Amino acid sequence: MDISVTLFGGLRHFLPAGSSFNKCKISTDEGASLETLLRQLPIPENKPYIVILNDEKVSRENYADILIQEKDDIVLLPPIKGG
Known about the structure:
mainly beta, five-stranded mixed beta sheet, 5 strands, globular
């Protein structure tokens, strides 16, 4: 199945070749976990980001337990810093 993933900010630099402005499609097997899907993106492990799945923030410790469905909306955001 093909899953649409949106990357914002500096994370866009890690979009696979052929991606549009900030979106890409990732092919994965039925029943794949969020963790499996995210590993297909070339984002370095030390690069922090926040995952939003269907408008809800997902904690990193839950990535392996969440099964992805084709209609899921996945957004990756860099942490926001400011003052």
